[in-house]
Each structure stands twice: as structure tokens, then as C-alpha cells.
Design a protein that fits this description.
- It is built from 24 helices and 26 strands.
- The protein is α+β, with helices and mostly antiparallel strands.
- The protein folds into 6 domains: 59 residues, Helix Hairpins, CATH 1.10.287; 224 residues, D-amino Acid Aminotransferase, Chain A, domain 1; 86 residues, Beta Barrel (OB fold (Dihydrolipoamide Acetyltransferase, E2P)); 71 residues, DNA polymerase, domain 1, CATH 1.10.150.20; 76 residues, 5' to 3' exonuclease, C-terminal subdomain (DNA polymerase, domain 1, Orthogonal Bundle); 69 residues, BRCT domain (Rossmann fold).
- Strands 12, 13, 14, 16, 17, 19 and 20 form a 7-stranded antiparallel sheet that branches. It has a 5-stranded mixed sheet with strand order 2-11-10-3-9.
- A hairpin with a 3-residue loop joins strand 16 and strand 17.
Length: 666
């Protein structure tokens, strides 16, 4: 059936006017027509599309709520790595950040800073193709997130079509307003459902709803704050451009000429934050000049050019009911205060770490003391001080023990040389073994779905596992013989174990529970050595040259690989596990750049700097973040900054992007 020309034009005009008024209402907060008139326009468009379904397009305003529930969220590999920020908690922290930035930039460079309110919501990554909304995904682990496109489409402030036909990746924060949060909890209370702890939890729970209609009812909102691979000159221009495209950008950003102005902005919003409908937990501070951002680059987990300047945490008082030593998976002993449960920053807290013996003595904290508790960075419960005026004389000093039964053996403990921490002398107590296995199967290591602490405990009790490699030898009959193990759950667990046999090098390194080696260090080691075989042969001197790895970490790594029991463990584990390589490094590329050190600066046109770095590593080359006499080549893109100038001073050979590509192809 031929569609009348005037109907085509009417649909086109309806979509344009609806999007215009939607933008005015949800982004600009400046409506020009009543809600009823807006609803009438939507209804007319819906009826026309119902009559001519072949005209329905993904960017139509009627498609914000798809109506179809989904069974599960699909995994999405991000095109651009998603970083998290390091935190600052005081003006002194920010002054230190400013000094680090200036030192790394070198010379007499004084960068400016942009300040943006840090919205306490859920980070989402948005993809647009030629101006049309294509996909939205959660941050996940920074590499892989979950596809939440259907749910994000319900958010009226997210444009389905940009005001320019451009392809881009943007990042933003999805949030739930305080008023809507109260309304949702009132409805949940009436329905006898569990209440959300705070608006952030409610927003995160809403985004993970499998029914978009429920998401639409909760009226989420979103601010966009970043544009991936920006070619603009400054961060301020980037925010203005995002707004020009039709995104909702938080209007309270500010350009500061120096760190003192940043601190003034932070203090202002510390007092004003509660007046906004959205939760604000700090200020994100970024070097304004993009060329300086490119020069500063990233650590293993965070940008060097930006930091989250957190507001001072909410503080409450509570009582210490006991102090208990907790044995970690590496044998380190951590004193934990058991508290009278108290609500702080939106969640109930009953435990707080006291870090070490020195911290207990510094605070002079005793059992039955009344203490001031806060969440450092709104995450980790932390005892700030003791209210000694409230002591009654019944408080008990904590006496550091000489023996700890959970350490196994004779319970002996020892102080770690040069540190405030104590550890078990016995490295293989039953409790440590359990915690290592929990960690091994956990989401940051092998991520074995269904193999949680309770299952591991059952397997240990039945003596079906004792070491990491035993997990990969489990058989269906072994598991079915255990109480409360049904056939379906056993099949699912074995499938998860089979899937986990293929892992990445960073996850493999994390899984080994090497003392002082966390996620960031594992990434640094993976990037530097590219295989577990090369890593286990590394010497302390080589490790200490890696930026971000100090003497203590280097010594821990070498000691772990020199231990004969660990060597046996590694050998057995590698019989069951395949460490996946990237596509490029799996090819026989040779090592023609071995021993050569490269520094990359500026913006590249045909590839990202991370892609260029990986290509260099695949050929055996090393990457450094700073220029020195040991640098062999500097690869300079657009706006190269001070590294380029220093390279010229030192006589380092400078390559442009085409010359680098030529070397790679040779």
C-alpha cells in the first residue's frame, strides 16, 4: 500500500516537534507547551506509526519504551577503555595532585582545570552512529559491560537523534532524583517490598530491570560529561559541544585558572550540594587542555590528568563491641572493629577496619569505646576518632596476641619487615587456603560463576579440592555425591569451570594471590611482560624500572616465583588453563623492536594511542610515559606537548604516525 505524501510529511514533522519539546522539557527545563498537549502529539504519532508500521524507526519518540521484556543482558566489549578516577579528600590532596601534574608536564607549564559536579549515579557509555542512538552499556570492569540500550532509551533526556549527524562515543551518569526516589520507596513500602537504601542503589537496580516499562515508570535522568577521542582543544569546549549536540550537560561546570580556585569551587558545593535534586558526592577535576591530558596519559586504572575531589564523608557515632583479628588470603592480619550497627551514607555498617597495630595505638581505641565513624570516599567504613569523654572505665584495651589460632600450625605470627602489618608465619593455614580459593574463583580473577564461598567450603570439606588446579579436575559424579547438589546446578557449575579455562594474563596474575599485587599492578605486569613465563624470570631490578612498581612490590613478586611450592602450583595450574593472547600478539610477529623504548605523545589520526602501544609491545618494544636519555623513539601526533620538546632537547629520534606505521609493517 502506497503511503500518502502528506502522511509522510506529517510523521516527519511530528517527530521533529516532539523531539524539540522533549529537549526543552527534559534537558533545558524550559517547557513551551502543557504536558497534555505533548501527550496528544505523541498519541497522534503513535497512531500513524501503528497504521504504517514500515515507517517506524529506532529514533522515533514512540520507541523510547520498547514494551518487550528481555531475558538477560548481553555482554559488550567497550570500544574505548573505561577508566575510574583516583580520589582526593582534602585541599592538601589537591595541592599534591597539582604538583604531580606540573612536575609531569615539565617546564613552567601552568594548566587550567575544569570542575564538574560528581553525580552519584551509574556510569553509562553511549554509542551514536551518524547522529542516531545505537547502543548503551554499563561500565562493567572497564573492558566489558552490559548492553542496557532498551532501558536507556526510556530516559527522556537521552537524545535518540543528535542535532548533528556525527558518530561518537560519549560517557554519562544516569541518576534518580530524590523526589522520585521517595515516591518509589513509598510504593514499595505499600507493596511490602524491600526499600532501596539510596537513590544510587535505586538507579542501579532500575537499569538492571529486564522490563523497560518498569524503567520508564521510575523516570531516570542523565547527564553527559565526556566525549571519547575528542579532537577539541579543551575540556570546557568538549562540554559545550556535547550540549550543542543535544545532550543534557550539568550546567554547574566551571573553568578554574589554578588549584586554589578549584578548592574554592569544592567548598562552595560542599555547602550547596543538598539543594539539588540529584546526589552529588564530590567534584571531578580535569586538566582543561586536551594536549596536556594526552601528555599526562593514564596509570593502570586511572587518568593522571583528572581526579575525583570527594566531599567530606558523613560522620556518625557508634560503639565498638569487639576487636577481632582477620586473616587475609596472603596471611596478613587485619584488626577489625565489630560495631553496634549504624546507618551511615545510606547503608548500615557493623564492621570497620582498624588497619594495623599502629592504627589501634594511634587512635587509642578500646572495646566498648564510643567512636566517630565515617565512610572514606563513601565506600570504606573508617573510625576517625574516639570520644574519650564518654568513657566509663569499663573499656578494655586491645592486647595484640602472640599466637593466632586461625594461622594454623602453632599459630605463630611475625611483623613484616619495614611495615606496620603482622602476618602468619604459616603460609598455608586452612583459613588462608579458603580465602585464596575464594579469590581465585572471584570476579576479578577467574570469575567462575556459581563457585562462591559456600560451594568452595563444601568442596574443601569433602576433600574434593585443595589447590587451584583441583577445581579443573572436578567430575559430575563427584559433585552429585555432595548434599544439596542437583544435576542442573552441577551442569551449570561444570560449564562455568570449562569456560574459565581460557583467561587473560592480568586475571591469571591476580588469581595467584601474590602479596601486594592487585588489579592495577597485574595490568602493568601484563603489559610489560606479556606472558607468565617472562614474568616468572623477572629480576627485582627490571621490575623496579616499571612505573608504578616499587621495591616492596618487586620483592614480593620475585619471592613468590622463587618459592618451590608456588612453582609446583603454577606448573599444575598451567596444565589446565590457557592464557589468551590478543589477536595481534598471537600472530608470529617477531620481536624486531625488542630492547627499544618508545614514548607516545599527542593525538594520533589512524589509531588510538593504546592501539599503537599494543602494536609496539607485540613487536617486543617497551613503552615509557616519560622522555629520558634511555628513550629510543618518541611518536608525536597532533598537539604533542612538552614530551616532544624534551625529546628535541635530548636528541631523541622523533617519528610521526606514518613513520611508525612503516616501522610496524617492515
Amino acid at each position: 500500500m502506497k503511503i500518502p505524501e502528506d502522511t509522510l510529511k506529517r510523521i516527519e514533522k511530528l517527530r521533529a516537534i516532539i523531539e524539540r519539546h522533549s529537549h526543552l522539557y527534559y534537558v533545558k527545563d524550559a517547557p513551551e507547551i502543557e504536558d497534555s498537549a505533548y501527550d496528544s502529539l505523541i498519541e497522534e504519532l503513535r497512531l500513524l506509526e501503528e497504521e504504517y508500521p514500515e515507517l517506524i524507526s529506532p529514533e522515533s519518540p514512540t520507541q523510547r519504551v520498547g514494551g518487550e521484556s528481555i531475558k538477560e543482558f548481553k555482554k559488550v566489549t567497550h570500544q574505548v577503555a573505561q577508566w575510574s578516577f583516583n580520589d582526593a579528600f582534602s585541599p592538601e590532596d589537591m595541592q599534591d595532585f597539582d604538583k604531580r601534574v606540573k612536575k609531569m608536564l615539565g617546564g613552567n607549564i601552568n594548566p587550567t582545570y575544569t570542575c564538574e559536579l560528581k553525580i552519584d549515579g551509574l556510569k553509562i557509555v553511549f554509542e551514536y552512529e551518524e547522529g542516531v542512538f545505537k547502543r548503551a552499556a554499563t561500565r562493567g570492569d572497564g573492558v566489558v559491560g552490559e548492553d542496557v540500550t532498551s532501558n536507556i532509551k526510556t530516559i527522556k533526556s537521552v537524545p535518540l537523534k543528535l542535532l548533528e549527524s556525527t558518530s561518537l562515543i560519549a560517557e554519562g551518569e544516569v541518576w534518580l532524583g530524590k523526589k522520585n526516589f521517595e515516591k518509589i520507596n513509598e510504593e514499595r513500602k505499600k507493596a511490602g517490598e524491600a526499600l532501596f537504601a539510596n537513590p544510587r542503589n535505586a538507579a542501579a537496580g532500575t537499569i538492571r530491570q529486564l522490563d523497560p516499562k518498569i524503567v520508564a515508570e521510575r523516570k531516570l535522568d542523565c547527564f553527559i560529561y565526556d566525549l571519547a577521542n575528542s579532537s577539541l582543544i579543551t575540556q570546557k569546549e568538549e562540554l559545550e559541544y556535547l550540549e550543542k549536540l543535544g545532550f543534557k550537560v550539568n550546567k554547574h561546570f566551571k573553568l578554574c585558572q589554578n588549584i586554589e580556585e578549584v578548592i574554592i569551587f569544592w567548598k562552595y558545593w560542599q555547602d550547596k550540594k543538598d539543594k539539588e535534586d540529584y546526589l552529588i558526592d564530590g567534584v571531578v577535576v580535569k586538566v582543561n587542555e586536551i594536549k596536556y591530558q594526552n601528555s599526562l596519559g593514564f596509570t593502570g586504572k586511572a587518568p593522571r590528568f583528572a581526579i575525583a575531589f570527594k566531599f567530606q564523608a558523613e560522620q556518625v557515632t557508634t560503639v565498638v563491641e569487639d576487636i577481632v583479628l582477620q586473616v587475609g588470603r596472603t596471611g596478613v592480619l587485619t584488626p577489625v572493629a565489630h560495631l553496634r550497627p549504624v546507618l551511615v551514607a545510606g547503608s548500615t555498617v557493623s564492621r570497620a577496619t582498624l588497619h594495623n597495630q599502629d592504627e589501634i595505638e594511634r587512635l587509642d581505641v578500646r572495646i566498648h569505646d564510643t567512636v566517630i565513624l565515617q565512610k572514606a570516599g563513601d565506600v570504606i567504613p573508617d573510625i576517625v576518632s574516639v570520644l574519650k569523654d564518654l568513657r566509663t572505665g569499663k573499656e578494655k584495651k586491645y592486647v595484640w596476641p602472640k599466637l593466632v589460632s586461625d594461622c594454623g600450625g602453632d599459630g605463630s605470627i611475625e611483623r613484616i619487615p619495614g611495615q606496620a602489618a603482622w602476618k602468619c608465619k604459616n603460609k598455608n593455614s586452612y583459613l588462608q587456603k579458603k580465602r585464596k580459593l575464594y579469590h581465585f574463583a572471584g570476579k576479578h580473577a577467574f570469575d567462575i560463576d556459581g563457585l562462591g564461598p559456600k560451594i568452595i567450603d563444601a568442596l574443601l570439606e569433602a576433600e574434593l579440592i585443595a589447590t587451584y588446579d583441583d577445581i579443573f579436575t572436578l567430575k559430575k559424579g563427584d559433585l552429585l555425591a555432595l548434599p544439596r547438589f542437583a544435576e542442573k546446578s552441577v551442569d551449570n557449575l561444570l560449564a562455568s569451570i570449562a569456560k574459565a579455562r581460557n583467561t587473560t594474563l592480568p586475571r591469571f596474575i591476580i588469581s595467584l594471590s601474590i602479596p601486594n599485587v592487585g588489579e592495577e599492578t597485574a595490568i602493568l605486569l601484563s603489559n610489560e611482560f606479556e606472558s607468565i613465563e617472562r614474568l616468572k624470570e623477572a629480576k627485582i631490578e627490571r621490575l623496579e624500572k616499571i612505573e608504578g612498581i616499587g621495591p616492596i612490590v618487586a620483592e614480593s613478586i620475585v619471592e613468590w616465583f622463587e618459592d618451590k611450592e608456588n612453582q609446583k602450583l603454577l606448573s599444575k595450574l598451567l596444565k589446565h588453563v590457557t592464557i589468551e593472547q590478543s589477536e595481534s600478539s598471537s600472530q608470529d610477529l617477531g620481536k624486531k623492536l625488542e630492547g627499544k623504548t618508545f614514548v607516545l605523545t599527542g593525538t594520533l589520526e589512524t589509531m588510538s594511542r593504546e592501539e599503537a602501544k599494543q602494536k609496539i609491545r607485540d613487536l617486543g618494544g617497551n613503552i615509557s610515559s616519560s622522555v629520558s636519555k634511555e628513550t629510543d623513539f618518541i611518536v608525536a601526533g597532533e598537539n604533542p606537548g612538552t614530551k616532544y620538546e624534551k625529546a628535541l632537547e635530548l636528541g631523541v629520534q622523533v617519528l610521526n604516525e606514518r613513520e611508525l606505521e612503516k616501522i610496524i609493517r617492515m
